[in-house]
């Protein structure tokens, strides 16, 4: 309850910080972009992770203002890294259901792009099955309008929902992010390897890019390489960190 009240002034008080986790092209080993992951430096509680405050911010509606700030910040950072690297650096930003249901979301995204100069194709918006708990036609309409700007849509935590295949049918998407629970079990002899192989194949036939999340071991990386997974994310390649703690993406191998 204290947290919910504290959320109201947190954005203007500068208590939020974006951490960035690299996304790697598995065949070349280069960083192609980053995922923006929000952190809250609470004045008395210290670091609060999104699992604790995003649900509250959803409920209280603060997520719209917070999300706007994240988009502006992340787009600006991606534009700066792209200039530094001399090549396009992508940025993925998580959008919660309430943000996507907001009438202003398209204008918000466009403003973040315009303000930063980041080309729209370098921005990915990540959504989960939760968005389908709102009016499906409205959500699909918003996603189509966002895509019309040129941004890409990723289905996050893919495979964990009750009807992941139906999201692929209903949501306009460009990327699937394989949930880390599948990746964790890779190579352990269970069914996960077959499931991940199937997701990658499915994505390929639908012309979608794939990002495997939560890669922590060289063994998992090797299996994903054999399965020709295009992109990976995980502690093995980099933890979410502040921008100034990152190796600038243009400067040397990752
Ligand atoms: O590292 P991690 O604890 O950062 O993230 C936990 C969850 O919080 C993830 O499911 C992620 O999608 C969500 N999350 C992180 N940053 C943001 C954000 O800026 N906006 C929204 N809506 N969700 C976020
Ligand atoms: O739900 P979403 O995919 O947006 O959130 C990503 C979450 O996964 C964040 O909380 C991030 O910190 C976490 N994460 C990223 N890489 C790894 C990893 O290799 N292992 C584990 N356990 N968590 C990870
Ligand atoms: Mn995500
Ligand atoms: Na995810």
TrEMBL record:
Residues 1-254 form the EAL domain. This is Diguanylate cyclase (GGDEF) domain-containing protein. It comes from Geodermatophilus ruber.
């Amino acid at each position: 309850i204290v947290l919910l009240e504290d959320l109201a002034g947190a954005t203007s008080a500068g208590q939020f910080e974006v951490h960035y986790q690299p996304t790697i092209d598995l065949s070349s080993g280069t960083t192609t972009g980053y995922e923006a992951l929000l952190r809250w430096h609470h004045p008395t509680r210290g670091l609060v992770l999104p699992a604790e405050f995003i649900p509250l911010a959803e409920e209280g509606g603060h997520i719209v203002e917070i999300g706007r700030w994240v988009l502006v910040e992340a787009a600006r950072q991606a534009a700066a890294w792209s200039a530094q690297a001399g090549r396009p650096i992508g940025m993925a930003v998580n959008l919660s259901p309430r943000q996507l249901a907001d009438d202003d979301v398209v204008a918000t995204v466009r403003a973040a792009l315009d303000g930063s100069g980041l080309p729209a194709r370098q921005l990915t918006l990540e959504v989960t099955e939760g968005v389908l708990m709102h009016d499906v036609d409205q959500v699909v309409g918003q996603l189509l309008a966002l895509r019309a700007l040129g941004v890409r849509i990723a289905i996050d935590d893919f495979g964990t929902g009750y009807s992941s295949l139906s999201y692929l049918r209903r949501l306009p998407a460009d990327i699937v992010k394989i949930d880390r629970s599948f990746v964790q079990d890779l190579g352990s002899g269970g069914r996960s390897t077959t499931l991940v192989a199937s997701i990658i194949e499915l994505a390929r036939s639908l012309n979608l890019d794939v990002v495997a999340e939560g890669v922590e071991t060289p063994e998992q990386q090797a299996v994903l390489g054999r399965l020709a997974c295009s992109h990976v994310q995980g502690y093995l390649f980099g933890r979410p960190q502040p921008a100034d703690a990152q190796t600038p993406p243009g400067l040397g191998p990752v």
